[in-house]
């Protein structure tokens, strides 16, 4: 089932999400719906707060990035096969010199900006079967994880922009929160409790 994606301005996007247990109601169905919602909106990641649930869950499928011509075959292959569910994730280490990449967000449509992040991370999480993992990632996969991880901590990519960039985007962000934007996927807007 395709769920509406919560738009910028909704308080749930600013909430520190809470951990869940394997008894969380209909977790398999929720994960399936999140992937379906993400694919419908042409996203590569989706966090539970973006569908209105303040829980520590996000899903990622980086396969669309594997089409990028500027990548090596190894990078393309690692992106093509990366599809994961992260539950109760905790980034324990980030390292390396920050690098810029143009990011966007399904909750903030039509806004893309360069964001600086460190290239390598170590993350602890449990998967959909509640099996524990401790893994290291780098490059684009690390960046997608960092972006989605920020969502479960109530942080948006726009928070990482300069004060000047934030001022330039203020009007656009206000319009998004009021639903004054055309999107080709379902959204829920905080100021106009309407669905598309």
From TrEMBL:
Pfam families: Pep_deformylase. The active site is at residue 148. GO terms for biological process: translation. Keywords: Hydrolase, Iron, Metal-binding, Protein biosynthesis. The keyword Iron applies. It catalyses: N-terminal N-formyl-L-methionyl-[peptide] + H2O = N-terminal L-methionyl-[peptide] + formate. GO terms for molecular function: metal ion binding; peptide deformylase activity. Its EC number is 3.5.1.88. SUPFAM superfamilies: Peptide deformylase. Fe cation binds at residues 105, 147, 151. It comes from the Bacteria. Signal peptide: none annotated. Coiled coil: none annotated. InterPro entries: Peptide_deformylase, Peptide_deformylase_sf. It is an enzyme of class 3 (hydrolase). Its cofactor is Fe(2+). Binds 1 Fe(2+) ion. PANTHER family: PEPTIDE DEFORMYLASE. Belongs to the polypeptide deformylase family. Removes the formyl group from the N-terminal Met of newly synthesized proteins. Requires at least a dipeptide for an efficient rate of reaction. N-terminal L-methionine is a prerequisite for activity but the enzyme has broad specificity at other positions. This is Peptide deformylase. The gene is def.
């Amino acid at each position: 089932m395709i769920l509406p994606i919560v738009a910028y301005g909704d308080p749930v996007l600013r909430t520190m999400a809470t951990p869940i247990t394997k008894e969380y109601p209909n977790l398999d169905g929720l994960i399936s719906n999140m992937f379906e919602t993400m694919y419908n909106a042409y996203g590569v990641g989706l966090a539970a707060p973006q569908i209105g649930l303040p829980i520590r869950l996000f899903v990622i499928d980086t396969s669309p990035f594997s089409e990028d011509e500027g990548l090596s075959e190894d990078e393309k292959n690692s992106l093509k096969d990366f599809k994961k569910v992260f539950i109760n994730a905790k980034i324990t280490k980030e390292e390396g010199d920050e690098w810029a990449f143009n990011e966007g967000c399904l909750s903030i449509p039509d806004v893309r900006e360069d964001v600086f992040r460190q290239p390598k991370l170590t993350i602890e999480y449990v998967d959909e079967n509640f099996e524990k993992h401790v893994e290291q990632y780098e490059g684009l996969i690390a960046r997608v994880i960092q972006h989605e991880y920020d969502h479960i901590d109530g942080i948006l990519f726009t928070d990482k922009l300069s004060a000047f960039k934030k001022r330039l985007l203020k009007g656009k962000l206000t319009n998004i929160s009021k639903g004054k934007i055309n999107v080709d996927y379902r959204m829920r807007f905080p100021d106009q409790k309407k669905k598309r």
